[in-house]
Amino acid sequence: MTNNTGFTQLLFLLQSIFSLPFLCFCLERNTISSGIYLRDPETIVSPQNVFKLGFFSPDNSTNRRYLGVFYTVSEETVVWVANGDNPLINDFSSSLTISKDGNLVLMNGINQTVWSTNISTKTTASIVQIQDTGNLILRDLATGNPIWESFSHPSNVFLPTMKISDNINTHEKVALWSWKSDSDPQVGNFSFGIDVRNDIVQMFIWNNGRPHWRSGPWDGDTFTGQFSLSTSPYQEGFSIGMDDRTGTVFLTTPERRFLNMHALNSSGNLMLMVWDDQRKNWNTFWMQPHTECNVYGLCGPFATVGSCNNDFYFCSCLRGFEPTNRDEWGRGNWSSGCERRIQLQCNYTSSTDIGDRFFRMESTNVPDSAVKFSNANEDVCRQRCLVNCSCIAYAYPPKIGCMFWTDSLIDIRHYSSSPGYGIDLYIRLSPSEFVVLEDELEKVKLAEEFPLFTFETLANATDQFHGNNLLGKGGFGYVYEVHFQRLPGQGMDEFMNEVMVISKLQHRNLVKLIGCCVERKEKLLVYEHMPNKSLDLCLFDPSQTNLDWTKRFSIIQGIARGLLYLHRDSRLTIIHRDLKPSNVLLDLDWNPKISDFGLAKIFGGNQDHGNTARVVGTYGYMAPEYAVEGRFSEKSDVYSFGVMMLEIINGEKNARYYNYDKSLSLLGYAWKLWSEENGLAFAEESIAMSPDLPAQIIRCTHIALLCVQQFPKDRPSTRTVLSMLSHEIVDLPIPEPPVFAVGPTQPTCQVGKNSTNNVTLTSIDGR
């Protein structure tokens, strides 16, 4: 009885297996032919096991089933969906096969067609194959010719060798479509493709058909508005081609050794994803728009994003334009853009040089809707625009040729921090725009270097410079919470000097200048935001949280690295001349950033020192040779740095320190305690209590005393200071006593009666 039961069960099992002979057969093949069914949850796999075709349910939607193509290394990464708009609900008995008319069809459990390739074909037999590129191809079995492919009907993923296209005759596009959400593959709001107008090719992301993001024109090598495409190794080979027979222009990328794809997410971001085989996940190497600042036409017509920092942005009118709606503009609504301030004259003739002129705006993602006129050199391009009253701007990138604009200038980006990228744009202005006052002339220079803000924008951003937004006051002006500095006491020379110096410097320990304003006799600088404010506020304000020694030592090292860059590693030698705690700003992670370059001196070639009859700086930080004789060099900055080091260790300000028992200045007090081998007693009590730090604190005091020696030749260079701080130099020389050793009532060094100096006294408030 038992044997008969076992035999019956075995027979039933064998019948079940042979009733589905294609199950194992299909798993080992990459094709489906007529008469063969792919049933949920079966798959077919590409020849090299890169992609699978099969059924899936997105996250959080187990009752919905879809047919799709996905990576074998990451089966949740779906690259193509057949029935995104028509899911199979609670149906796990669907199947895929080839119909009698040669189409590929997806049927539900009651044999109703849910999706089909739906093409007119005369073939009687066809076969579908999944390739290692991820392309699903339906072929005529007799000829082998493709009659349909998934690459021509993409979902939200752009794979290598796929062609995203635009037909210049029919305007028919092959484009990506975003999913409705991360778990819903219905067609969403966003699409990605290329657009060919007037022989200019650009990439676009559209939001319900409206431009959402734009790449800028293709110049034969790259998209000119997206310089990151040409600098990333993963983007090399991105190319544009054309099928002359059909008039189709297409965008494609080549196959790689590594797995990669461009994906359009449901929020409208196009992302370059590269597979990390060790971590088994996708890394994002590029994304657009990567912030709100990159959204199409954000600032309206005739305007550009003047500053963008962590999605905080300002818009600026182009040169010669002003806000169309000042009330909206002042409230931070820039969508109405700008309008021309003075109308064009359009009276240029070839025999005279009067009339409209062009203002050059360097390094831009040029506006949308250009008209191309390629058969011209740059001079012809300019003349052609000038004699045409409807031409309001032109550009001449050699790889593209002459481009005109006759409508609004929309979606301009100015790459002020990345000179050499983008295209120079020439904006047509009335000649009276070039007849300007001295301050206006400086604005023209600034506009070529830096984004300009209107005074009204900055006034509204600070509630009319309300005291509640005031961060502090320094020697040359006030600092407000909305990321900029007002400089009522600073002259145009100092203002221009700061802008021109810092705009050419890039270092993690130098503050980043975002833009500026010269208007109504006001001079304002817009800096990146420093949440922890200035070093002097943290050191000398008793209401602030004390800095522990780890932070203080890191700040000392960071300031030294910034100084080394100024003195030795930048293209030009720069002496700051006003180094002090109020000119050191602290970011969110307490990294120090040197600021306020209004008094900085620039040297070229091998020059590294200078002399001036106009001594400017701050009492307590100036080196003796500079205060008395006007001589300055790298070593005068080293002296100021040494004073700052002592202040950071002690927690007291040099200019107001006085030891009543010994009549010693802060420098003299440090020297006395160090020479008595009691250097730890000089440190602020809160940091001297740790048993693990005395040696480092005493060593820093020693280094600081070397920096404040009387004669420049005795002071270490900035590079040597850094080597001492990092213990690359272990043994330190013995310092001479500092020249300013006694308190303010008994100065050992006085400014001569006949010297001309403009020493500035700085407020104790933070800058």
From TrEMBL:
At the top of the EC hierarchy, this enzyme's class is transferase
Q: List, alphabetically, the PROSITE patterns matched.
A: BULB_LECTIN, PAN, PROTEIN_KINASE_DOM, PROTEIN_KINASE_ST
GO BP terms: namely: immune response; recognition of pollen; signal transduction
Location of the Bulb-type lectin domain? 29-151
**E.C. number:** 2.7.11.1
- Indicate the segments forming the Protein kinase domain, all copies: 465-730
A single GO CC term, please? plasma membrane
Signal peptide: which range, if any? Answer: 1-19
- Give the CDD domains listed for this entry: B_lectin, PAN_AP_plant
Keyword field: ATP-binding, Cell membrane, Disulfide bond, Glycoprotein, Kinase, Membrane, Nucleotide-binding, Serine/threonine-protein kinase, Signal, Transferase
Reactions it catalyzes: L-threonyl-[protein] + ATP = O-phospho-L-threonyl-[protein] + ADP + H(+); L-seryl-[protein] + ATP = O-phospho-L-seryl-[protein] + ADP + H(+)
What is the protein's given name? Receptor-like serine/threonine-protein kinase
Q: Which organism is it from?
A: Erythranthe guttata
